[in-house]
C-alpha cells in the first residue's frame, strides 16, 4: 500500500469551526448540569449528576503502518478529530451527610436502599428523601402527600412514635406504657441505581437499565439502616461544583476563541483570493 497525499482544501477549511462548536455546546450542557447540582445543594436525598463526554469520529488522512513512496513504513497515523459530544448524565449515589433534625418522622438511610412511595396513578416510585409527614388519615406520607409503601397508619391517640433501625414502627398509646407495633418500613435496592429515571420531586422510577426493585428489610444483609430523627442531605459538594464551573467556563471561552481564530483564518484566505 502506498502513501496517499492528504487533502486539506475545500470544505475541510471549515472543520475547526464545526469542531469548536461541538465544544461550545458540550460546555453549555456541562454548565447546565452543574447549575442544577448547585441549585439542589439543600435538597434532602438529592444525588448529584455528572456529565460524561465522548469524542466524535476522526477524519483520517493517512493510516498508521502504510508504506511511503520510498518503501518506509509510517509509524503513526495522520488524523483529525471532529469534536466532542455529551454521552450521558450519570447520577452519583454516594451517601450525603446525615444530619440530626429532632423531628420524629425524619428518616435517613445509612447504606444502600430507597424508600418506596405510591404515585397518584398507583405506580411505585423510589426516594432517598426521608422527610415524612402525617396526613389527615394518620398515614405516613411525603411532603407532596404521596403515601409510604407499605402503608403505615399512626393511630390518632398515639403519644409517641418510635422507628427502629430495622424499620419497625411502634407507637405508645394514651394510658399505656408499652409500645404497639403498627407496621414496618421496607427498602428497595437496584442492580444498577444509575439506570433509574429521575422524575423530579426527589423521586426515581425503575427502567430496564436499573433492573427491578429488590425489596428487603432495613438493617438486613445488603440493605441500609434506618435512623429516626435524622435526614440525609444532598451529596453535592459546593466547592467541587464551583471548581467544575470554572473549568467549564474556561473551556467554553477557549472553544469560543478557537471559533474566532478559525474565522480569522477564513477571512485571510478570502482576502488572498481577491
List keywords for this structure.
20 strands; elongated; 274 residues; alpha+beta; 3-stranded antiparallel β-sheet; 5-stranded antiparallel β-sheet; 2 helices; disordered N terminus
Describe what is shown at a glance.
The chain is of the alpha+beta class and 274 residues long. Helices cover 22% and strands 31% of the residues. The chain folds into two domains: 10-93 and 237-272, no CATH class; 98-232, no CATH class.
Provide the fold topology.
Blueprint: H1 15-39, E1 49-55, E2 58-62, E3 78-81, E4 84-91, E5 98-100, E6 107-110, E7 114-118, E8 124-127, E9 133-134, E10 140-141, E11 147-148, E12 158-163, E13 168-173, E14 179-184, E15 187-189, E16 197-200, E17 203-205, E18 214-216, E19 225-228, E20 230-232, H2 238-272
Antiparallel strand pairs: 1-4, 2-3, 5-20, 6-19, 7-8, 7-11, 7-15, 9-10, 12-13, 13-14, 15-18, 16-17
Amino acid at each position: 500500500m502506498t502513501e496517499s497525499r492528504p487533502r486539506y482544501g475545500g470544505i475541510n477549511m471549515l472543520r475547526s469551526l464545526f469542531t469548536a462548536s461541538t465544544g461550545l455546546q458540550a460546555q453549555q450542557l456541562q454548565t447546565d448540569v452543574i447549575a442544577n447540582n448547585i441549585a439542589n445543594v439543600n435538597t434532602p436525598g438529592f444525588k448529584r449528576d455528572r456529565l460524561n463526554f465522548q469524542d466524535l469520529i476522526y477524519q483520517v488522512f493517512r493510516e498508521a503502518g502504510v508504506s511511503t513512496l520510498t518503501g518506509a513504513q509510517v509509524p503513526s497515523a495522520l488524523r483529525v478529530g471532529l469534536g466532542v459530544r455529551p454521552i450521558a448524565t450519570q447520577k452519583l449515589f454516594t451517601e450525603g451527610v446525615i444530619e440530626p433534625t429532632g423531628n420524629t418522622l425524619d428518616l435517613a438511610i445509612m447504606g444502600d436502599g430507597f424508600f418506596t412511595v405510591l404515585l397518584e396513578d398507583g405506580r411505585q416510585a423510589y426516594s432517598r428523601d426521608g422527610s415524612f409527614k402525617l396526613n389527615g388519615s394518620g398515614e405516613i406520607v411525603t411532603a407532596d402527600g404521596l403515601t409510604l409503601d407499605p402503608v403505615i397508619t399512626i393511630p390518632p391517640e398515639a403519644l409517641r412514635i418510635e422507628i427502629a433501625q430495622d424499620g419497625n414502627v411502634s407507637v405508645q398509646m394514651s394510658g399505656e406504657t408499652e409500645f404497639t407495633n403498627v407496621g414496618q418500613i421496607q427498602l428497595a435496592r437496584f442492580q444498577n441505581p444509575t439506570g433509574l429515571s429521575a422524575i423530579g420531586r426527589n423521586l426515581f422510577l425503575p427502567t430496564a437499565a436499573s433492573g427491578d426493585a429488590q425489596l428487603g428489610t432495613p438493617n438486613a444483609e445488603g440493605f441500609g439502616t434506618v435512623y429516626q430523627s435524622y435526614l440525609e442531605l444532598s451529596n453535592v459538594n459546593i466547592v467541587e461544583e464551583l471548581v467544575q464551573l470554572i473549568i467549564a467556563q474556561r473551556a467554553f471561552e477557549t472553544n469560543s476563541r478557537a471559533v474566532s481564530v478559525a474565522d480569522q483564518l477564513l477571512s485571510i484566505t478570502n482576502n488572498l483570493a481577491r
